[in-house]
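Q: Please design a sequence for this.
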């Protein structure tokens, strides 16, 4: 479904497939044989079904693009529970064809694989930073109020930007030192990222000086004080 809708919306889906050895390729037609790909080849794409349901597929894709219908409602319509739906079948055929093209390009192009891995590494790094910042209550928003959720997201974005800004300034100061000016090449600088948090303590710092006493007055045990009443109650219980 993802490959099909991305194709209809005019952009290309570039996922990183971990179990790529188990992926299947679909034939464009039966006129050509591919003996070298026989172990991974499957059936032929049903182009006729795609042509029959093309108008309906475009209608749903347009609704997604224009926002005239909720994205979740549209995607829930095309799940495995509705596998007999004709539009679902057509989208599945289009998705299989698009995915087959992507797999061929992915296996053939080293540059494409590097682009996908680099982009996804950036996203995963960013998500790790978000989990590090938004650690309260397991990172879940324990409210259904839209206003509270919006405030939480705005605070998260503010801390994100502050983290990146401070880290950028610190990295600039280090790179300005003469000891580092000639040690880093272009590839090294490409690997530098301001989305690091190993030097940050999200829980705050508590500095204790065990050689000094807290500035608290000594307890007063007058006849009406709480301490005197507790001591009296203790004496009565112990006889």
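A: Design:
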């Amino acid at each position: 479904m993802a490959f099909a809708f991305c194709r209809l919306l005019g952009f290309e889906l570039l996922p990183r497939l971990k179990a790529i050895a188990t992926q299947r390729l679909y034939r464009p037609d039966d006129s050509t044989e591919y003996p070298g790909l026989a172990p991974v080849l499957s059936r032929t794409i049903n182009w006729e079904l795609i042509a029959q349901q093309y108008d309906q597929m475009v209608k749903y894709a347009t609704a997604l693009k224009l926002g005239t219908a909720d994205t979740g409602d549209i995607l829930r319509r095309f799940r495995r529970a509705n596998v007999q739906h004709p539009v679902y079948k057509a989208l599945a055929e289009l998705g299989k064809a698009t995915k087959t093209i992507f797999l061929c390009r992915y296996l053939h192009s080293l540059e494409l694989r590097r682009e996908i891995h680099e982009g996804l590494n950036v996203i995963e790094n960013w998500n790790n930073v978000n989990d590090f910042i938004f650690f309260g209550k397991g990172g879940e928003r324990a409210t259904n109020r839209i206003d509270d959720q919006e405030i939480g997201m705005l605070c998260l974005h503010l801390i994100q930007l502050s983290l990146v800004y401070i880290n950028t300034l610190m990295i600039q100061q280090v790179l300005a030192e003469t000891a580092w000016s000639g040690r880093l090449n272009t590839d090294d600088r490409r690997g530098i990222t301001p989305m690091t948090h190993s030097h940050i303590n999200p829980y705050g710092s508590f500095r204790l000086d065990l050689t000094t006493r807290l500035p608290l007055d000594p307890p007063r045990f007058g006849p009406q004080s709480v301490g005197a009443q507790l001591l009296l109650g203790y004496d009565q219980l112990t006889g």
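Q: Thanks. Anything notable?
A: The longest strand covers residues 41-44. The radius of gyration is 31 Å.
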